[in-house]
Design a protein that fits this description.
Strand order of the largest sheet: 4-3-2-1-5-6
Largest sheet: 6 strands, mixed
Helix content: 25-40%
CATH topology of the largest domain: Creatine Amidinohydrolase
Number of helices: 18
CATH architecture of the largest domain: Alpha-Beta Complex
Strand content: 15-25%
Number of strands: 28
CATH class of the largest domain: Alpha Beta
Number of domains: 3
């Protein structure tokens, strides 16, 4: 397994950092040769995917920084990287000694590095970027910002051209999800999409987000780690459709089934030529958040109607079949967690184990579940101070041993044919102190408050966010990441359009029945410990009042009672916890052996209210 440079031995680390410096110098030499003043390298592919295959990890290769969010900017004399609060600690570690200056954003990432370019570059400068890796939204925002100083933003692939040992892109088989009677068929989804197109007065729709394509066609793939999607574009017309995909990824039988549904197959690379020949005067509907700017330039701007994708709005509402299937998947996933945590609890020599060992054990437990495809992200397993690194990933060479007392944060999830999971638990190994219990209980109270919320139809995630934070705020505490994100069904673990966050642009969507969202407040003390409690919650009509909504918690695994200060919980909160643990017990114990049942029964023991 490839190791992150900052976690290698000192000799390896120096060797890697020198290599990073050499790569930056090479880019700077090329900028001077081309008389360009700056280069932007986002962490994106042509579909604006969150996770990337190695082929598109351009920024990682040049910088050594491996976080999922971050922008590298190289000028003729400097190199800087901006990332968000989830990766501040990781960026400081991975960029140490590289010569790349780590920058904390002021506002959004785009606004931060854009303003820096305005402040640093002369008027009339030329900035280059591979526009395939910039969405139309990102490109428009940045171009408008740079225009204040008459700085132009141009397409250039110099970063890719200088990437000498760039991996070959994968081309894995595409497979079909079973279309059972209770689920929406491919033909039914196309009918729904065309109905929405007609309401907008549009007859041509280009889908560029990979999870939207997979959902529409009831197909899945493995081109991107952790997300069961495949590289493609999908055009939907009035009566037929075109799937642009590497044809070797489709079996003959699948190709024939798609043709029966009037879906024609063209090569992935043919999308540009197809756009060049798109009928003059016709309008093409597309989502500016996932359409890349290079493709956008293939047509006159007046031929595009840019607005949020139709599929995203349909996909986020889970069907009754998906909810039922996911409930069964949650039970199987919860049982896998029990097996892994029981193994840890009963291990004769815990001090010999590391964070990495537990991550591997967790993965192996999930692999035993029928329908398992992969993890939905690499497990975040952090002991003591590593738990405060929000997206910490243990590597075999540096993982901390689980020796002594401390808080242990485990955030993980699985991809299954019948659902996607994402769950975080913080437990104590050994004994917790009074402050740790107080902090854990404040996080838990916020989690329960959001899980128990009853709110009117029309409520947004921005309005819901304070439920999860108010008990932390009482103590002058907070956390910097969002409280909740949408989750797909055998699709991306992070899915729009809904979110629960204090940032308006991430949480402006109105919540509707059928939305599946995470509930994950936390608290992170740098150098000490991290706490997060996360379940997936389903939005549904309220049982208490017409015109109101509430949440049902679907994730199934006990919350560590050893970390709860029971005096801080009110009767309603204790009742919620007892009811939740009874639900966990009833769902999971039939899937366990006798020793695991005894362990679970103890973990689900009631709190006296």
């Amino acid at each position: 397994m490839q190791k992150h440079p900052c976690y290698a031995s000192l000799t390896k680390k120096q060797e890697k950092l020198l290599t990073v410096k050499e790569k930056i110098i090479q880019l700077q030499q090329e900028l001077r040769k081309k008389n360009k003043q700056a280069l932007i390298i986002p962490n994106m592919d042509p579909h604006q995917s969150e996770y990337l295959p190695d082929y598109w990890k351009i920024r990682d290769w040049y910088s050594g920084f491996t976080g999922s969010a971050g922008i590298l900017v190289v000028t003729q004399k400097e190199a800087l990287l901006w990332t968000d609060s989830r990766y501040f600690l990781q960026a400081a570690l991975e960029l140490e000694g590289s010569g790349i200056a780590f920058q904390k954003p002021r506002g959004s990432l785009s606004n931060s590095y854009g303003k820096w370019l305005i402040e640093q570059l002369p008027e009339g400068s030329q900035v280059v970027c591979n526009l395939e890796t910039l969405s139309v939204v990102h490109h428009r925002f940045l171009s408008e910002l740079l225009s204040q100083k008459k700085i132009s933003l141009l397409h250039d692939t110099l970063a890719e051209d200088l990437y000498t040992d760039r991996p070959v892109p994968g081309a894995y088989p595409v497979f079909e999800l079973d279309e059972v009677e209770e689920s929406l068929s491919r033909k039914e989804k196309l009918t729904l999409i065309r109905r929405e197109m007609a309401e907008k007065g549009q007859f041509h729709y280009l889908i560029t987000a990979l999870d939207d394509i997979a959902w529409t066609l009831n197909l899945r793939g493995q081109d991107i780690p952790f997300n069961p999607v495949f590289y493609a574009y999908l055009y939907i017309g009035p009566t037929s459709a075109i799937l642009f995909v590497q044809q070797s990824q489709l079996s003959t039988s699948l190709t024939e089934k798609l043709k029966i549904d009037n879906i024609n197959i063209r090569s992935y690379d043919a999308i540009g030529t197809w756009l060049d020949h798109f009928p003059e005067g016709e309008i093409l509907l597309a989502d500016p958040a996932s359409l890349n700017s290079h493709l956008y330039g293939s047509l006159p701007a007046k031929q595009f109607q840019l607005e949020s994708g139709i599929v995203e709005q349909l996909k986020c509402i889970k069907t009754d079949y998906e909810v039922q299937a996911l409930s069964a998947t949650m039970a199987a996933d919860g049982a896998a967690l029990v097996k892994a945590f029981y193994w840890l609890d009963s291990h004769p020599n815990r001090a010999s184990l590391s964070e990495y060992d537990f991550a591997e054990r967790l993965i192996s437990s999930r692999k035993e579940i029928p329908g398992y495809l992969s993890e939905s992200f690499f497990p975040i397993v952090g002991f003591r101070e590593n738990g405060a690194i929000v997206h910490y990933r243990p590597e075999i060479s540096h993982a901390k041993k689980l020796e002594g007392d401390g808080l242990f944060l485990v955030d993980s999830g699985g991809q299954y044919l019948k659902g996607t999971t994402d769950i975080t638990r913080t437990i104590v190994l050994g004994e917790a102190n009074e402050l740790q219990r107080e902090h854990f209980t404040r996080v838990l109270k916020g989690h329960i408050a959001l899980a128990s919320a009853v709110f009117p139809e029309g409520t947004t995630g921005l309005q819901l966010d304070s439920f999860a934070r108010m008990y932390l705020w009482e103590a002058g505490l907070d956390f910097q990441h969002g409280t909740g994100h949408g989750v797909g069904f055998c699709l991306n673990v992070h899915e729009g359009p809904q979110g629960i966050s204090p940032h308006p642009h991430r949480a402006k969507t109105i919540f509707r029945a059928g939305m599946l969202t995470s509930n994950e407040p936390g608290l992170y003390l740098t150098g000490e410990y991290g706490i997060r409690t996360e379940n997936l919650i389903l939005c549904k009509p309220s049982s208490q009042a017409t015109g109101f909504l509430e949440f049902e918690t679907l994730s199934l695994f006990p919350i560590d009672r050893n970390l709860i200060d029971e005096k801080m919980l009110c009767k309603k909160e204790k009742n919620w916890l007892n009811e939740y643990h009874e639900k966990v017990w009833q769902a999971l114990h039939p899937l366990l052996n006798e020793q695991e049942k005894k362990w679970l029964q103890e973990k689900c023991r009631s709190i006296h209210s």
